Amino acid sequence: MRSLLVALLLLAAACQEPAGAVVHTERASAATPAPPEPAAETRIDEAQREEDVPVEPVEPAAPTCEDPLPIYAGGDKSGEVCREDVANRGLTLIDLSDDWTASIFDEDPDGAVPALPYRDVIIALANERFEDLPEDFEPERFLELFGIFPTLSVMRSRLNDDERHSCHASIDNDALDRLSGTLRPWAPTREEQVARANSVRYLRHRLGRLTEELGLASIAELDGHPEHGRHYAQLERQSAFVDSIEAARAHLECEELHPRRGEYGVFDTRLSGGLAKYQRMHMIVSGGLLDEATRQALRQDSREQDFETLLRVLRERVVSATGLLEDGSATREWGDALGRTLDAPEFRHDARQPAADNGAPDLITPATERAAEALGFTSVESARASLSALLEAGVEEVAIELPPLPEYHSGHMELRAEVDRGDVFYQYPYDENGRRRRQHVQRRPVFTLYTHHEGRDIALVRWSTTIGGWKTENVPGGGTALRYKNSSVGDRVWRDVIAAPAWLPPRSAPDDELVRRTSDGWAPNHGLFGPGYRSAFGLVMMMHHKVVNSRDPDEPPRFQDEGIRVHGSVSYRSITNGSSHGCHRLFNHLAVRLSSFVLDHRRHTRHGSLDVRYSRNIRHRGRAMTFRIRSRGYRYELTPPVPVRVLSGRIRGPISNPVTGFRVLPSRVAAEAQRAEQQ
């Protein structure tokens, strides 16, 4: 639907602007010519005009189309507009429907190419309609962290769930304020955690009795007591851990993420799994740890948390409607929407690299804020009322006035991408005794997208990314070893953009990494293969091709695939503090924004599904399994391709070139390497 809308808007604007240009017009009322000034003999001075001749406001003409679209401003409907007049009125259409997706997942407006099958999966997950999912897809909630945002209908349910909000509000968060550091499951051991919890129970009982006997108002008055002060200090120290664990458990029960109570005061893997889902719900990069970011979220008012999620949901709709990508990362100056920081620190990671020269400012945040004000999403209560009114009225599209787009935006922009590899260590990461070498990376790799306008380059975004490193692989003949996976340096191009890509595991991939535990035992990890947000390539990938020119000038160049991509990933810690198998990873939602932006602003051809016949037999813990992949994803071809340059970075350490071959590891070191890779 969005692609059809864009086509109609461009068609309506073609008579006024060159083909391919984005039209920026003022509102129609501002463009209306002023009435002719009266003749001298009939002219009225200003004072008399104000007193005797009241000026009636000029109402815009009523739209003449069959299905006019509502215009919203200040939280209310302020008028209507025909679809073909939206651009001329200086308005932007925002899709509020429950079947919205980012433009890369849109259906072909001409209907010539079959729709992307994974689009229906995204819509089902965003609506939490798990009965609509195919059998192979896991029914998961809270996927904002992985690039699939809930619908406005889901957000209305969350905001209006007063029982859930009352549950959160009733929890004592005092211990979360007192705790410092990070808690991990089974650290310390279960026995030590049980002993600590029992000690807290005993001390509370004993000191409570003493408080009554001494006629004190509370246990806190024992602080500094000459005889019992040390016991009170012990209780304060131990209860910070125990009570924080119990507070976290209580908050998870409010979200139905931990339905059965665990052992009192014990941080186990089940509690960690519930925390991981809670963190996904609020776009916290943590992985099930009780760290400061998670404690801060647990302490926050749950209604305010839902409101911030609503703003993030709206932000993706605004990005899609405007074709914006500029988020402030190029200048390292990110904005706040309605005074709220919507992104975790990891999404604003500067990779210890400087801001780009001539970087674009944050344009997404002001547009999001303007859209929120127009729709009435300015506070928890106003958002609840406005969102309910919109959905009950069946409003699926609204026209609103947003800040003007930059003049360099057009239907076909001159774009180029650059990857700075940062500090690169080729040296083997273990010494002769099996101890890990210290390889301090001062500058992490970054990805930058540029456009060229009026003789100068403009950096649109600068994001943290990854390059290759030492990775575990199967050795021919058996065993596991480390091998350096390089990120090729030099000039490449993006020709193919693949939505919902599948990963075809190479034969070198260990069987143990291709399975997952289920209630029935072990099964192939379809989530890893894709398509899906958890796949090795995430929700989208942009392939690096090396252009090979033919010796015959009459033959077109060939595009050589070296296996390197810019792609989405859920291995978020690797993006800020790790490495890849050679590819340049991005956070899933940013990879979706990037690919949608490129398709919105570059000529391209939609080819559809890349059919493939792939199967593999794997064996794990005595069980044989087979899995098959029928499509590698949904292909768009950029015409012409976008240039990409991968810089060599700063080569550090005693080795100046990539190491080839395998280095066989002792089992202990191999296990450590695999754990590091999975983080």
Brief descriptors of the model:
alpha+beta; 20 strands; nine-stranded mixed β-sheet
Strand content: 15-25%
Low-confidence stretches: 1-51
- Mean of residue pLDDT values: 88
Rg of Cα set:
29 Å
Number of strands: 20
CATH class descriptor name of one domain:
Mainly Beta
Q: What is the CATH third-level topology name of one domain?
A: L,D-transpeptidase catalytic domain-like
Distance between the termini: 39 Å
Looking at the overall shape, the CATH architecture of one domain is Beta Barrel
| Largest sheet geometry | 9 strands, mixed
CATH evolutionary superfamily of one domain: L,D-transpeptidase catalytic domain-like
Structural class: alpha+beta
What is the number of helices? Answer: 18
Shape: globular
Q: How much helix, percentage-wise, in residues?
A: 25-40%
